[in-house]
Amino acid sequence: MIETANDTRVPCDLRFTLLLEDGEFEGTAAVARPVPDQDRSSDQLASIWETYESISSVIDEADVGVFVLDDAFNVVWIDKTIEEYFGITQREVIGRNKRCLIQETIRHRLVDSDTFVETVLAT
Question: Which residue range forms the structural domain that includes residue 26?
């Protein structure tokens, strides 16, 4: 469960990728994707809710960037780490398609942009 900037709670799947350069840890990238309504059951929601606090705690304390996307892969929320990593703001990316955002804005800010784009767009 991710809480958005407008205090809406969104059940989601969360995927993390380590960013390595020459075998050295450079950071992480994560993608949070809302779980479609038809996939939700009360058991799943209960389980998601139970882990919400621990996940949000990890995200808040870790140096992890999080994108939350809708079913069309449009950005609905990013965390402060994403803003800091890529020099972008929530205001400029909310509503943009993830693939376009990666290709047009983010990839040019990375040393190994091809690997990053390949990894992120595969999710």
Answer: 2-121
